[in-house]
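Usage

Read records sequentially. Each one opens with the input sequence:
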Amino acid sequence: MMTKAEKKHIQFLHRRKGRNKNGQFIIEGKRLVQEALKAGEQFLFTFYTDEFSQVNKEMVEKISSHLPTCQQISDKEMTSITTTDTPSGILAVCSIPEYSIADNDENYIYLDNISDPGNMGTLLRTSVWFGIQNIILSKQCVDIYNPKVVRSGMGAHFYLKSISNLSLDTFRESHTIIGADQNGNTVDDCEITPPWVLVLGNEAHGLSKNTKRLLDHIISIPKVGCGESLNVAIAGGILMEKLVERLPAEGT
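and closes with the structure output:
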């Protein structure tokens, strides 16, 4: 049985203020917990239901053997601390790591006021897929540890280095800064020298004015069919692939 203090603490982590104050975030569901374990994540707390334990006995035993804070709770208690309408039966609390820019030779994704949690999570997954581990978030972005972003990211958080509220101007002398906009040039028409920063703008308004003045290149995806624009997560994935395939092979 969980204590009132534990319940209150987990519920506080549903909010950005609680996550920032405690330096912790929530993960829910078997798949996310498995991915966290695979990445070597150390849980601060883990809660599971009897039903989940019966179906996933080996997994629960593995977590319990390493974590004294792993405990079984009732379905009602799980419902009171979960952020989903249909609780999966397991919830864990992880620490939010702190990162700083250490290697200016690495490439970055800069998210400029991305507001939709689903888009944010998809962009994180895509970045990991293409081996881009550095994510910068402007001040107005949705919280990268928002529960909806974490679920959409499907474990990407454990393989990324993210920094919030960092000015794009930081990269002006060290990187080629590239902005995505439908009125730009194709990647093949631009002389892009790594390391680079790919900037992806807000879903409704695109790149901000302050961002545009710092860009070395504006790139776009040619339209073959019809439609007004691409979703930022889809466009970001296409541009990441195009940029990564142009990188020199390791050792050359």
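Summary fields computed downstream for this record:
- The longest strand covers residues 176-185.
- DSSP finds ten helices and ten strands in the chain.
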